[in-house]
RNA sequence: GGGUGAUUAGCUCAGCUGGUCAGAGCACCGCCCUUACAAGGCGGGGGUCAUAAGUUCGAAUCUUAUAUCACCCA
């Protein structure tokens, strides 16, 4: 093995081997349909956009899913991690459109069919970036089952669902106010609209009464919409306007008259208390218009320019151009009261960034209430559990206020809506034109035209858990893996995706799509800011794995920016933060970093110090393994049933291993990857490496150790490492596989890969509590010597003579059993029991009540030791007075559980003994 | 305005059912290139657990209020 861990050399190779051998498949050696008696385990990957590339959020999420998947696969479950990608309608269309635009054309030049052809081409060539990157992460996805939301099977499922919902009156077509994106020319759902506060104005306009009796002042943030006003509303109890109600107003700039109406919705405190009502261009006004039977006048085109329903002067003007013109005309007519500065919420499309207009169009909707009800129940009754639990509140909050879902989009890339129209505007829904003709007995003389719209991308995503498994066909996959076990996702798509999967799953399979929803946090930069291209603080997981030169990183962060003026600042920032670029940390280190920070419900601030530390951990494991292999390969490791003798250290490390295994299992079962990783880290470094490997040297490098003892130690050394590798494999797949390949034969395991080995199962019979206690004693002993050594600048290599006093029988027995180890580990010359009181001047340490004395002659400064003892005494006295106060409290003694009281008493006694011992030592020194 | 979460060492974070829970890593200080590892070893310093009240024999942990920050919804 190389002296230094080099992730690059091992990762790529192992992934290819795993994939080629089909290790990721649940049916590699058994037929799925056959009943093997295994439990099944299935996770659906949240399908990334085909246009996408791997970002830190994916890397985090994929680490969690892969660790769970590998854990269950090793546990012996029939395990499937289902891969696939999403066609991501608007996002993908925009990407390809941009490419075409760069060639000086628009999609309209190409026409619908040719454009869609282009997208498929593009997908074939550039669409698998993210699946390549998933492989770099070590993701054990069953690639031969990879699906795409627009592939044939999934399209079939989409049609089936649409037709069935339509037939049950759960899908309808209606003219409604929708969120209209005037750049993309499509409706978008509420969720795709991001409202943020921006600076704007509040225009106060005078609306003259028709009877000439003055005017009413209305305030608006969008004056151009006045062309579509069909009423002015006031609160019914507003005394200021009582006599206005029922009168009419002569709407300025038009020749229309509109009524003054009364409605509770109006807030008398806000603005002037009079509100202009534009039912065609505002959601609240739309509702009010319906209540009062007001006409609905649409004044905008699909581009958000003024249309022909408006006075001729404004026709064809863009909405903002029209705004200026109208404000000016009102002002000229003396109808502009005032203009206030105003902060207002501006709705923008999440894809285009364009200001969204409420717009009246024909769209398809899913009637959501009948679907939402069982979906709410499923979470209420525990069929679906959120982890952490509090996310269910967010879910309920949304589900209880859910509106019908607008599912049609006026774009080209997506599932075309399976609806056909005849010349008379009749609509027929069916899987294809032929089915429609057949069902409705329409012969060829009637020409049918398919709906031009496509479905919202999330419509097909909502079917993902069952459509990928073959639904609507009854497949072995569906039978085996549905309902899936857990959905791992970010909170940002609970509404977009999770809720809709639950509704569709329940509706079409009668079962929940997954039993648990594990909601993880966001990956932020080291300062806690969201990573974004425009801020220039994005880290690419692949760069952390492979490393990247500073210049390349700067180039990457500053190219193709929306706001090029930011480039300078970003460059400076980047050069400061990554003076030497980013070193190659490797996939395992990255995964470990994510795992150990995957506490529930908390965002991750990604700190370079952490990943560096865990890269070092990989190196530690690597070198420990080198040591183990050097001492076991070609040696007798006790595999031939020859006699073995196990040392204290052997029994101790095996005990601790069992306990660690239990801790890892418990943690993984409760989605606490952080605890699992922490347990592995601490066991490996603080116990196996720091203590056990060192102790093993005192047996292996000791010529007087017996063959049975050496066999016992070699056996333990290699067995513990082999188990540890399996324990760590779900989190660190590559390094564990690489090392395991060399380790496994030494413990007699035949197997091609660690991936398919059983996960460690702790054996309580192997936990030797006496050994754990005795080891603790030994550690205290060594620590005491080391503290003295370090405290007096005694050279680490200088052998010391140690005297022991005040030891119990058990101390004596323990010493006898472990003398060799102690001498080696604490670098001692000799250990001698002191049988009289004639101790020389010494520095002292305590193990329980036993005193460890290191004679000072020539080594130690008396004053320094006195000072050290005083300090120690002081701290013990403090502790004692705290304990005494507690124990003299009658309430504590009588009310606290006996155990606790006894424990406190014991602590007090121990500390008092310790104090006595220390005081004696101090007196001895002082008397000199 | 409604909701959720957070506040623990200089930094990033653990701390499970209230009782060895005041911890880890990084950073810092001292000693050491000891034949697995200097990406290392050994030892050490450092926190009034945001604030205030309360419950309790006992609170980082439970309750309430306040402050600050973050996110979601309107």
Number of separate helices: 30
Helix content: 40-55%
Q: Give start-end ranges of low-pLDDT stretches.
A: none
Largest sheet entry: 4 strands, antiparallel
Please compute the radius of gyration using only Cα atoms.
37 Å
Q: What is the general shape?
A: elongated
- The counted number of beta strands is 29
What would you call the structural class?
A: alpha/beta
Instruction: Give the neighbour order of strands across the main sheet.
Output: 6-5-14-16
Mean pLDDT across every amino acid position: 86
What are the key terms here?
elongated; 30 helices; four-stranded mixed sheet; RNA-binding; alpha/beta; 928 residues; 45% helix
Q: How does this model look, in words?
A:
- The protein is built from 30 helices and 29 strands.
- Helices cover 45% and strands 16% of the residues.
- The model has no long low-confidence stretch (mean pLDDT 86).
- The protein has a four-stranded antiparallel β-sheet with strand order 6-5-14-16. It has a four-stranded mixed β-sheet with strand order 10-11-9-12, with helices on one face.
- Strand 7 (193-208) and strand 8 form a beta hairpin.
- It is α/β, with parallel strands linked by helices.
- It binds one RNA strand of 74 nucleotides through helix 11, strand 25, helix 21, helix 23 and helix 26.
List the helices and strands and how they pair.
Blueprint: H1 7-20, E1 40-44, H2 56-75, E2 78-82, E3 84-85, H3 89-102, H4 107-110, H5 112-126, H6 129-136, E4 147-148, H7 152-167, E5 171-181, E6 186-188, E7 193-208, E8 215-220, E9 231-234, E10 248-250, E11 257-262, E12 274-277, H8 283-291, H9 319-332, E13 336-349, E14 357-366, H10 369-380, E15 385-387, H11 391-399, E16 405-406, E17 408-409, E18 419-421, E19 427-429, H12 433-440, E20 449-450, E21 454-455, H13 457-461, H14 464-467, H15 476-481, E22 484-490, H16 494-509, E23 514-520, E24 523-524, H17 541-546, H18 550-558, H19 567-577, H20 587-596, E25 604-605, H21 608-632, H22 648-669, H23 673-700, H24 707-728, H25 733-743, H26 769-791, E26 800-805, H27 809-825, E27 828-833, E28 842-847, E29 850-855, H28 862-888, H29 890-895, H30 898-927
Parallel strand pairs: 1-2, 3-4, 9-11, 15-23, 22-23, 24-25, 26-27
Antiparallel strand pairs: 5-6, 5-14, 7-8, 7-13, 9-12, 10-11, 14-16, 17-21, 18-19, 18-20, 26-29, 28-29
Helix pairs in contact: 1-25, 2-20, 10-11, 10-16, 18-19, 20-21, 20-23, 21-23, 21-24, 21-25, 22-23, 22-24, 22-26, 23-24, 23-27, 24-25, 26-27, 28-30
This protein binds one RNA strand of 74 nucleotides through helix 11, strand 25, helix 21, helix 23 and helix 26.
């Amino acid at each position: 093995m190389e002296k230094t861990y080099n992730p690059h050399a091992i990762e790529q190779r192992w992934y290819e081997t795993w994939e080629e051998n089909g290790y990721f498949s649940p049916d590699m050696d058994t037929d799925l349909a056959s009943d093997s008696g295994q439990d099944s385990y299935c996770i659906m990957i949240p399908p990334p956009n085909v246009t996408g590339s791997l970002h830190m959020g994916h890397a985090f999420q994929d680490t969690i899913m892969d660790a769970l998947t590998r854990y269950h696969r090793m546990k012996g479950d029939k395990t499937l991690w289902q891969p696939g990608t999403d066609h991501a309608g608007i996002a993908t269309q925009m990407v390809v459109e941009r490419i075409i635009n760069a060639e000086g054309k628009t999609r309209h030049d190409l026409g619908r069919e040719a454009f869609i052809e282009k997208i498929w081409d593009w997908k074939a060539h550039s669409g698998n970036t993210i699946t390549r990157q998933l492989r770099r992460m070590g993701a054990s996805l069953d690639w031969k089952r990879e699906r795409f939301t627009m592939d044939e099977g999934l399209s079939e499922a989409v049609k089936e669902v649409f037709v069935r919902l339509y037939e049950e009156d759960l899908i309808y077509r209606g003219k409604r106010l929708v969120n209209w994106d005037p750049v993309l020319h499509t409706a978008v759902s509420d969720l795709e609209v991001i409202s943020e506060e921006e600076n704007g104005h509040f225009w106060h306009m005078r609306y003259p009464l028709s009877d000439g009796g003055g005017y009413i002042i209305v305030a608006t943030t969008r004056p151009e919409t006045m062309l579509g006003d069909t009423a002015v509303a006031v609160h019914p109890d507003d005394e200021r306007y009582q006599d206005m109600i029922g009168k009419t107003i002569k709407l300025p700039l038009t020749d229309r008259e509109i009524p003054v109406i009364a409605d509770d919705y109006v807030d008398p405190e806000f603005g002037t208390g009079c509100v202009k009502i534009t039912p065609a261009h505002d959601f609240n006004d739309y509702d009010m218009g319906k209540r009062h039977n007001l006409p609905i006048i649409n004044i905008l085109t699909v581009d958000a320019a003024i249309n022909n329903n408006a006075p001729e002067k404004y026709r064809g003007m863009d909405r903002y151009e029209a705004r200026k013109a109208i404000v000016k005309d009102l002002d000229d007519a003396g109808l502009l009261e005032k203009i206030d500065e105003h902060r207002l919420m501006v709705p923008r499309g999440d894809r285009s960034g364009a200001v969204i207009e409420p717009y009246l169009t024909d769209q398809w909707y899913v009637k959501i209430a009948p679907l939402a009800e069982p979906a709410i129940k499923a979470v209420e009754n525990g069929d679906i559990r959120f982890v952490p639990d509090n996310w269910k509140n967010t879910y309920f909050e949304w589900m209880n206020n859910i509106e019908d879902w607008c599912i049609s989009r006026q774009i080209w890339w997506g599932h075309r809506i399976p609806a056909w129209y005849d010349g008379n505007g009749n609509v027929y829904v069916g899987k294809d034109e032929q089915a429609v003709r057949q069902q409705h007995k329409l012969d060829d003389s009637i020409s049918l035209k398919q709906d031009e719209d496509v479905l919202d991308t999330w419509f097909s995503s909502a079917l993902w858990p069952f459509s990928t498994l073959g639904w609507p066909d009854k497949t072995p996959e569906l039978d085996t893996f549905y309902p899936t076990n857990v959905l791992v996702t970010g909170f940002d798509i609970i509404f977009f995706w999770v809720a809709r999967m639950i509704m569709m799953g329940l509706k079409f399979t009668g079962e929940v799509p997954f039993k648990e929803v594990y909601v993880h946090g966001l990956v932020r930069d080291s300062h806690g800011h969201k990573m974004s291209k425009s801020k220039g603080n994005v880290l690419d997981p692949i760069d952390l794995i492979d490393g990247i030169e500073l210049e390349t990183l700067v180039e990457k962060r500053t190219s193709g920016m929306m706001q090029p003026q930011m480039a300078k600042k970003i460059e400076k920032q980047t050069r400061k933060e990554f003076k030497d670029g980013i070193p190659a940390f490797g996939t395992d280190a990255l995964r470990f970093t994510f795992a150990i920070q995957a506490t529930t419900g908390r965002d991750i601030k990604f700190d370079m110090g952490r990943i560096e530390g865990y890269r070092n951990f990989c190196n530690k494991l690597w070198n420990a393994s080198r040591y183990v292999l050097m001492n076991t390969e070609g040696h007798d490791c006790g595999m031939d049933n020859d006699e073995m003798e196990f040392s204290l250290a052997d029994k101790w490390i095996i005990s601790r291993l069992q306990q660690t295994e239990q801790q890892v299992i418990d943690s993984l079962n409760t989605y606490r990857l952080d605890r699992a990783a922490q347990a592995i880290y601490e066991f490996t470094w603080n116990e196996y490496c720091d203590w056990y490997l060192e102790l093993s040297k005192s047996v292996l490098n000791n010529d007087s150790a017996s063959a049975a003892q050496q066999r016992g130690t070699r056996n333990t050394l290699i067995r513990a490492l082999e188990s540890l590798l399996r324990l760590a494999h779900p989190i660190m797949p590559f390094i564990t596989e690489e090392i395991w390949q060399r380790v496994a034969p030494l413990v007699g395991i035949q197997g091609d890969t660690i991936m398919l080995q059983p996960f460690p199962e702790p054996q309580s019979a192997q936990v030797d509590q006496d050994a754990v206690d005795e080891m603790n004693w030994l550690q205290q002993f060594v620590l005491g010597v080391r503290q003295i050594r370090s405290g007096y600048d005694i050279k680490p290599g200088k052998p010391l003579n140690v005297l022991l006093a005040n030891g119990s029988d058990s101390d004596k027995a323990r010493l006898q059993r472990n003398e060799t180890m102690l001498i080696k580990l604490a670098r001692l010359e000799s250990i001698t029991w002191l049988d009289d009181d004639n101790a020389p001047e010494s520095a002292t340490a305590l193990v329980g009540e036993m005193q460890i004395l290191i004679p000072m002659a020539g080594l130690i400064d008396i004053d320094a030791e006195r000072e050290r003892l005083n300090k120690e005494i002081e701290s013990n006295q403090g502790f004692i007075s705290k304990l005494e106060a507690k124990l003299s409290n009658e309430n504590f003694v009588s009310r606290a559980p006996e155990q606790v009281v006894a424990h406190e008493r014991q602590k007090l006694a121990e500390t008092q003994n310790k104090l006595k011992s220390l005081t004696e030592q101090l007196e001895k020194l002082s008397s000199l």
